[in-house]
Design goal:
Number of helices: 7
Bound molecules: pyridoxal-5'-phosphate
Number of strands: 18
Helix content: 10-25%
Distance between the termini: 22 Å
Radius of gyration: 21 Å
Order of helices and strands: EEEHEEEHHEEEHEEEEHEHEEEHE
Largest sheet: 9 strands, mixed
Structural class: alpha+beta
Length: about 350
């Protein structure tokens, strides 16, 4: 299918950020967007790139009522060689299709959306920031547009991709974050939608995150919904713990998101010859490990911050300091390795980097 491109007219470009060192996350969006439409019986049609614009949505559009909305998050990086790269982008669209199947939405053609995304980034190339630690965040999104108020899967959808320059996700940057172990609210239960990137999962997490923020914490650490016993993940990150010589992360049992950074970390850690285990870790085992000194480090993994060290964990009114409140050795080494691959400063033995210029 041919992608029709309608560039913004001369003089219609938005103002670009002047100082890349102050870039935050998610407020600035570029000049163009990719869109395509879907109807049952017709499939996806009219793929196009247009100047960034508001959407006209019917108030009865089913996404607004029953939450058929899914999204992805990935980044484009200006490499050390002045070329632009993506990191494992096809995996994001495979995960989008997994999310789509779970909430009865149509899958996208991965080749077509890859082509649309690359064309969009090339058209908005000047929006890819160049300073260290910055990147172009990419947000593919799909929503049900059919106007209908009965509960059932919609028959019409819109898929779009918007992009914008970003800096650090957490104001802490690479400094260790403080996390609050949530034992009241739950994010997702096995059998639910926790392993998909659907908007409702994030809505369900907001209240706990707000309450944790009020208490001075960066993020919530979720426990399993059934027993509030096993560690799942943090707001927008998968979690890793180094206990003695074992690197542990929660298994993909259906309630946590299968992070692409998580998968990258697992492969690298194994290749470094370290003991990498995907197993359930209870909060009691973790607290005991902090108390007896066997917890070496804890870190979150995700596209936004890559590796985010945890310096403090609060559980049932007690504060526990992790790794002396500093970034651990493995966290730092993994950060250097993955960022090195993303920004083309290191050899990419895994074939994860995709050049688009
Ligand atoms: C709930 C949740 N867990 C984990 C992650 C990390 O996933 P990834 O490494 O693919 O960014 C994210 C971010 O997308 C997320 O939203």
């Amino acid at each position: 299918m041919e992608i029709k491109v309608t560039p913004a007219g001369p003089g219609c470009s938005k103002e670009k950020p002047k100082d890349e060192s102050t870039l935050g996350f998610g407020d600035i969006l570029s000049d163009h967007m990719f869109l395509m439409d879907y109807e049952v019986g017709k499939g996806w049609y009219h793929p196009r790139i247009e100047p960034y614009h508001d959407l006209a949505i019917n108030p009865a559009a089913m996404a607004l009522h029953y939450g058929q909305e899914i999204f992805e998050g990935l980044k484009a990086y200006y490499g050390a060689d002045d070329e632009i790269y993506l990191f494992r982008p096809r995996d994001n669209f495979e995960r989008l299709n997994h999310s789509a199947r779970r909430i009865c939405m149509p899958e996208v053609d991965v080749d077509l959306v890859m082509e649309g995304m690359k064309k969009l980034i090339l058209l908005d190339k000047d929006w890819v920031p160049k300073s260290q630690g910055t990147s172009l965040y990419i947000r593919p999104t799909m929503l049900a547009t059919e106007p209908h108020l009965g509960v059932r899967p919609a028959r019409g959808y819109l898929f779009f991709i918007i992009v914008g320059p970003v800096g650090a996700y957490y104001k802490e940057g690479l400094n260790p974050i403080r996390i609050f172990v949530e034992d009241k609210y739950v994010r997702a239960a096995v059998g639910g939608t926790g392993e998909t990137k659907t908007a409702g999962n994030y809505a369900a997490s907001l209240l706990a995150a707000e309450e944790a923020k009020e208490k001075g914490f960066t993020q919530v650490l979720w426990l399993d919904a059934a027993e509030r016993k096993y560690i799942e993940e943090v707001g927008t990150m998968n979690m890793f713990f180094v206990l003695g010589d074992e690197v542990i992360t929660a298994p993909l049992n259906g309630s946590i998101l299968p992070g692409i950074t998580r998968d990258s970390v697992i492969r690298i850690v194994k290749d470094w010859g370290l003991k990498m285990t995907e197993r359930s870790l209870s909060i009691d085992e973790l607290i005991e490990a902090v108390t007896n000194g066997s917890l070496q480090e804890a870190f979150g993994t995700g596209t936004a911050a890559v590796i985010s060290p945890v310096g403090q964990i609060a559980y049932k009114g007690e504060d526990y300091v992790v790794a002396g409140g500093k970034m651990g050795k493995l966290s730092q080494r993994l950060y250097n390795e993955i960022v090195g691959i993303q920004y083309a400063e290191k050899e990419d033995a895994y074939g994860w980097r995709e050049r688009i210029t």
